[in-house]
Each structure stands twice: as C-alpha cells, then as structure tokens.
User: Which sequence fits this backbone?
C-alpha cells in the first residue's frame, strides 16, 4: 500500500493532469465522469455524473463501488483492479439511484498513465437505456479508445509547446530502434538524425508549418535505425490551439508501414501482372458495383469482343445490353434475374459489335451478396465463341445432312417431323409424308460411276428444293430415296397435284458429261393422323405405299392403305413358305406356245414356273420370283426348272410327240453359279435331251453387271447347241452393244410395246425400229403379249415372224400342250 505522502503526490499529479485536460470541459461534458485515485476514492465528478447517479459525493469521500448494487460490487471491484493494471475496461452494472430505483449503467474505466505508471482512473458512465440517443457521442469516445488500443502497434507522441517538452510512447522507441527504458526523448534536430537525408528537409518543413499555422500534416519518410536498418514510416500530426489561436500542442502518431509497404508494392506488382494477363486473355474480365451502379473493372478483352472503347463501357454500366441480338434479349434478361437470388449463370447469346459483325459470346456471371442477401457486386467473364459455335454447327450440320446433296438426312428428317407432328397435334391439322423412290438410279451408279451418280442426285435435289418452304421439309433418307413432309395437307387431290409436280421435276432430262440421263420415281404417301400419329409409323407406311407404287408401275404414286399391311404380312409368310415349297412339291410348270405369225405353226414353247400355295392358292410369279432373288433360292428354283423341263421333254418324246425347243428363264445369279454349264450338260445327258431343244431367256438387267462372265457361260453353252434369247427388249437398258457382243439367237419384244403398237406414237415407232433392227441383224424376233387382232395385223404388216400371247394361247398345263404338239398348228 502506498503511504500518505505518495497518495498526496498522486492526487497532485492527477489534479495537474486534470488541469491539462481542461477541467471545465470535463464538468460540462454530457456524460458522467468520475476521477478516481488508486484507492478507489472519487476525487472529482462532473454535473452529469451527479445527475446520473443521484448521489451527492462532495460532502464526504466516497468510493465508486459504494454506489453500485451489492450483487454487482465484486464485479466492479475486479474491473477496477484491471484498470489499475493499465487496461481499459468496459462493463455494464446496476447502481442505487437517489430515488431508490435501480439504474443500468455502462461504465468505461480508463487508466491515467503518467510516466508509464497508473496514477488513477477515469470512470465514464452513461445510461444504458439511452444507448440509441447517445450513439454519436459513444462513437467519438470509441475513436479515442481505439487509438489507445493501437499504441502497441503505432507509436505516438505529443509535444508541449508551453513546456517545450516531448513525450514518446514505448512503441515509438521500438520503431526508431531505441530501448524504451532509456527514457530518451530527442529534440526535433535529434529526431532528424534518424531520418533519411533525402527526407529530412520535408519533415522539418512540415513540423515548422504546423507550429506556425496550426494546420495538421501527414508525411511518409524513411527512418534509419542506429543499426543502419531502414524503416518506412507514415507520420500524422494535429495541432492544438488555445482561445487566441496559438499552437500549444502537437499530437502525432508514427506508423511503421515497412511491411505493409512491401506488401503494397507486391500487390501493385501482382495487380500489374494480373492486369497484363487479363488484357492478353482472349476472354474479357469485368466487374460491376451495384451499389454505385458502375462498372468498376473492364479488361481489354471485353473491348475487343464488343468493338467498343473500354472507357465507354466503364462509363455506362448498361451499355453492353445494347449489343445483344434482338432475338436473344429476352432470354438474357431472364437469366439476369437468377443473379438476384445469388445464383451464378452461364449464358450463350449473339451480339452485334459496333462494326455490325455478329458474334456468339459465352458469358459467365458470378454474384456477390451482402450479409442481408442483397446483390452488391457481379463479376463476369465473357468469351468470343463464334469460331467454336461455327465448328459445332458444322459438326451438327455434317451429322444431320447428306454430304452429297446437302439435304437433311434421315435423322434430321425424323427430328423435324416429330416437331411438325407436335405442331399439327396442337393445331389439330394434318400433314403428309411423301416417300420417293428413284427407279434405275442404282444402274447409273453401277454403269457410269458414283461421281456421275452423285452429280445426278445433286441435280435432282436442286430441282426439288423449289418445293421447300418453312412448312415443307425435304430430305435424303436412303441411297435412292427421298422424303418430303408437307404441313396442312390431307386432301387426295392436293396429294395428286403435288405428286404430278414432283414427277415432272424428277423425270426431266439431266445431262452430265455428255450423258443424257433419265430416271422415274415411285411415290408413297401417308397422312397424319389417319395413317399414323408418330414418326416411325408415318415413315413406315409411306415407304410401304411407295413399294406398292413400284409394283404397280413406275412413275406412279400410292396413298397408304391398311390393306398394304396385310400384303406385307403375306409377303413375309410367302418368303417363309418359299423355303419349303420345293420340298413340299408346291411348284409346277405351265407352258405357253410361240407360233409363226402367219401359219400359226408351233415354233417353240416357254416354260413358266407356278406356285400353288396351300393357303393362298396360286401365287403370282411377280410376288415370289423377287423373293427368291433376294433369298438366293432362285438358284435352287432354276435348277429345279431345268430338271423338270428336261424330264417333260423326255416324257413327250416317249409319247411319240414331235417336240419343239423349250425356253427357260434364267436369272443372273443362276448364270453366275459355279458349275452352271456342267450342271446343264449333266441334266441334258441324264434325260437324253438334245441341247438344241433348250433355250435360255435372259434380260439385259441380269447381265449388265457381269458381262464378261455371262459371255463366257453363253459361249460354252452355245458350243454344245443351247440357244439364247434376249427377253423384254426395250424395257431394260437396250444397249445395241449387247446384241453385237453377246450374239443372241432370238430377240423378244416386250409386251408393253405390243400393247401400244396400234397407237400412232413413239412406242409404235420404237416397235418398228426393233423389228427393223432384228431383221438387219438376221435375228429371230418374237413379239410377246399379242392379244388383239389389230396387234396381229400390225405385226404381220411389219414382218414379225413369231408371236406369243393370249390371241394364240394362254399358259397351259403339259397335257394341253401335248394336244397342241399333236395338232402342230393353233
């Protein structure tokens, strides 16, 4: 415990300190202030303190803890002890008021430090119930208290002009590299010795101006410690003046900013590095402060993408929106709303640059929210993805378009058709799917090469593109197949009109490399929703109708009918039954005579295979021969016919009949079979049949792809006496080289020409030409399908030597033919 003299000395020191801090100011201060010595006695209180507590303490010495409620006295005593140790203490407590009411106070204990020792304590009290009203005053007090708290990091000093004395805080000694225990306070001249020579004059001038004018100053300079170490400091000083305006004190702080200066320089370097990186990125970096509604950062990449000066973009936060493509503005605006919820957004949209160039950009926006969830800043990255978009579009185009015609392919057609169907369903309308099959296109590819075939397809596609509108889709869906979708089309007369227009475009002559090329088309049509309500069904049914159109005849069209499904079912079961037909002995042969035109004497007969199906009865060869070709059963069937005919010839001979040559239709696959010639020879020998009684009928289409091989087979068989006829002349490729190179014995004019032989037109002229050609080549010529007297008279007039048809006899059973052979004439 200090003695009385010490206590007295402290009181004197306190009073001196009080005098320096202006006693009158403390008295008039609006908050309660107590000056307490180290014993806890109240040495002074202002009027505000008296009003606040309601206790008179002037009459006798009183301790502050005596005013405090018993339940809080120990707490107050503990806090006071902390203040005596040099700590600033704040706490809430309860006191006894004069009116016997309890009052909540907020007390701040501030130690009074003189010569580095605590000489007393200021107790600043305020009514805690009026916190809101006194917030501004408390804020001012907090500012001073915070300065004291920072004395551990910031050196402080003040210079008393009247006493010509300076006071340094311990930290200021540390900053200067001195020992605080030295209690050495240098004069201004001595201070300047610690300052870098380059900064001495600036600091001296700043201090002298503050002393003479009362103005504050702040200055940055370099200190040099006694050990030679340099420290960068920032000094700030304020002047206190009396009522006459004379400077009485300078109070200042010195902040050692060496480390922060290094960090600041590093940050500047990093910022410059990032700025360099940002400005050399292809992407643009930007940032917007929503509180000021300003763009606070905009890299050169943004300017490069938009073609606008960065300064203008920084000056107008919404300028970027004016560049957005009108069709994309709504989607972009919609995405922006997500930012308000704190969600990052990624958007791709088009812009028009300042020069009018259209670009695709990818924009990523990153929101920043404050503690209340309010959007305060948006950072973003924008990239020019025009090239990438073009590449992706190119890949998408290649994946959805035919590379030859540039038409949409089947995948895209199905996708677009699905969209159209949804639209029609919504509008309760119809649409039509046209499925086009190009006839004889494969022949063009095989004979003239794929280059010519590709250019031919391109010509066809370009002609059909005239039909394409926003409501019409044209696509290539197969090697020789096209598909067209027409919206709002259901009436049959509309379909017929469009089909006719399509035929006209497709069947026009196309000239490629001096080749005049023609194709015909078969069209199948299905209608939504009558013929199907989905893509697969509509395309399947249109394709089925197209195949039916091919069966009926080229350059024809067919609307889908449910009956076609039954035909498909039948076709499937025919193919299945075809495999067992030979084993079940369901095939048989009918024969049709060929006679001299004038005498009607039988010259030869043609063997025609027939199938008696156990369920459907007689099946037309037009139905099962193509199936046999596709399944390769045509070879087994051909062998069976040759064997059956040779056996029949042997039987007629045994009956004493004068037999005539029999024609057998043979397919290209049969001719290509290894050992075909040997098989024919063995069969003829087995039944003891002269080879001259066998004639093979072949079509041009069956030899066109394998001319050399077929020619060798024909030569071998002709050497033993077998003859050959060129069947259906005029409907195939009609190449004169075939007549020259293959040396056919007989030429058969197709029935399609004979049916129009009496019409004075192109087909009659062609028929005359074929007859003339056959005569000139010294070939036997037979007209097929002769049915009327007029046709017969025409053929007689133009010296057609032989005829075959219903006017003479329809195909008949072997028994009937035996009777014909007996008569010899029909």
Assistant:
């Amino acid at each position: 415990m200090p003695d009385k003299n010490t206590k007295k000395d402290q009181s004197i020191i306190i009073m001196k300190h009080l005098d320096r801090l202006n006693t009158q100011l403390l008295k008039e201060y609006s908050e309660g202030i107590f000056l307490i010595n180290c014993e806890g006695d109240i040495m002074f209180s202002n009027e505000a303190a008296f009003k606040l507590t309601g206790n008179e303490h002037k009459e006798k010495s009183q301790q502050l803890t005596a005013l405090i409620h018993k339940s809080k006295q120990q707490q107050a005593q503990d806090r006071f002890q902390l203040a005596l140790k040099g700590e600033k203490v704040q706490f809430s407590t309860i006191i006894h008021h004069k009116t016997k009411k309890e009052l909540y106070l907020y007390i701040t204990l501030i130690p009074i430090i003189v010569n580095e020792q605590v000489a007393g304590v200021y107790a600043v009290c305020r009514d805690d119930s009026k916190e809101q009203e006194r917030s501004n005053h408390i804020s001012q007090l907090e500012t001073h208290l915070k300065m004291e708290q920072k004395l551990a990091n910031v050196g402080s000093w003040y210079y008393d002009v009247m006493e010509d004395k300076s006071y340094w805080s311990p930290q200021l000694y540390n900053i200067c590299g001195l020992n605080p225990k030295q209690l050495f306070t240098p004069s201004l001249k001595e201070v300047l010795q610690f300052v870098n020579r380059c900064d001495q004059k600036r600091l001296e001038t700043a201090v002298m101006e503050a002393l003479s004018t009362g103005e504050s100053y702040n200055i940055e300079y370099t200190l040099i410690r006694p050990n030679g170490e340099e420290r960068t400091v920032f000094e700030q000083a304020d002047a206190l003046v009396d009522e006459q305006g004379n400077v009485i004190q300078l109070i200042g702080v010195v902040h050692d900013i060496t480390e922060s200066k290094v960090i600041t320089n590093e940050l500047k370097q990093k910022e410059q590095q990032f700025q360099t990186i940002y400005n050399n990125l292809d992407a643009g970096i930007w940032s917007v402060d929503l509180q000021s509604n300003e763009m606070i950062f905009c890299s050169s990449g943004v300017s490069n993408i938009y073609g606008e000066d960065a300064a203008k973009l920084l000056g107008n936060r919404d300028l970027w929106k004016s560049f957005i493509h009108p069709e994309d503005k709504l989607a972009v605006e919609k995405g922006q709303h997500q930012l308000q919820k704190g969600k990052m957004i990624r958007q791709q949209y088009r812009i028009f640059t300042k020069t009018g160039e259209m670009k695709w950009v990818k924009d990523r926006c990153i929101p920043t929210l404050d503690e209340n969830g309010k959007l305060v800043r948006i950072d973003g990255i924008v990239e020019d993805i025009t090239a990438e978009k073009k590449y992706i579009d190119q890949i998408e185009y290649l994946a959805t378009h035919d590379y030859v015609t540039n038409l949409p392919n089947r995948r895209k057609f199905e996708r677009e058709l699905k969209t159209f169907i949804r639209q029609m369903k919504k509008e309760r309308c119809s649409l039509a799917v046209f499925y086009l099959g190009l006839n004889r296109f494969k022949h063009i590819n095989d004979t003239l090469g794929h280059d010519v075939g590709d250019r031919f397809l391109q010509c066809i596609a370009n002609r059909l593109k005239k039909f394409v509108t926003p409501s019409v889709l044209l696509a290539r869906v197969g090697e020789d197949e096209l598909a067209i979708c027409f919206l709002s089309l259901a009436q049959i007369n509309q379909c017929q009109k469009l089909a006719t227009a399509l035929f006209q475009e497709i069947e026009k002559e196309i000239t490629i490399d001096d080749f005049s090329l023609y194709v015909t088309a078969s069209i199948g049509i299905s209608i939504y929703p009558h013929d199907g309500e989905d893509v697969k069904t509509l395309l399947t049914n249109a394709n089925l109708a197209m195949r039916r159109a091919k069966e009926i005849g080229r350059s024809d069209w067919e609307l889908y009918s449910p009956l076609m499904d039954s035909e498909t079912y039948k076709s499937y079961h025919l193919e299945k039954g075809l495999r067992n037909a030979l084993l079940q002995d369901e095939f048989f042969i009918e024969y049709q005579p060929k006679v001299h035109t004038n005498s009607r004497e039988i010259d030869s007969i043609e063997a025609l295979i027939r199938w008696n199906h156990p369920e459907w009865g007689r099946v037309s060869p037009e139905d099962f021969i193509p199936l046999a070709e596709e399944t390769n059963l045509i070879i087994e069937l051909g062998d069976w016919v040759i064997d059956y005919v040779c056996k029949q010839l042997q039987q007629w001979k045994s009956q004493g009949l004068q037999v005539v040559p029999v024609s057998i239709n043979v397919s290209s696959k049969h001719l290509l079979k290894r050992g075909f010639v040997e098989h024919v020879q063995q069969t003829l020998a087995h039944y003891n049949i002269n080879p001259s009684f066998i004639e093979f009928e072949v079509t041009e289409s069956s030899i066109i792809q394998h001319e050399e091989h077929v020619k060798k087979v024909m030569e071998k068989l002709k050497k033993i006496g077998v003859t050959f006829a060129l069947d259906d002349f005029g409907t195939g490729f009609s190449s004169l080289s075939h007549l020259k190179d293959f040396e056919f014995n007989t030429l058969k004019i197709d029935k399609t020409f004979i049916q129009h032989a009496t019409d004075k037109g192109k087909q009659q002229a062609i028929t005359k030409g074929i007859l003339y050609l056959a005569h000139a080549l010294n070939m036997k010529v037979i007209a097929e399908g002769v049915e009327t007297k007029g046709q017969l008279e025409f053929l007689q007039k133009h010296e057609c030597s032989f005829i075959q048809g219903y006017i003479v006899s329809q195909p008949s059973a072997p028994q009937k033919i035996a009777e014909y052979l007996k008569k010899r004439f029909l």
Summary: The two ends are 161 Å apart (CA to CA). The mean pLDDT is 83. The longest strand covers residues 102-114. The first helix runs from residue 4 to 20.
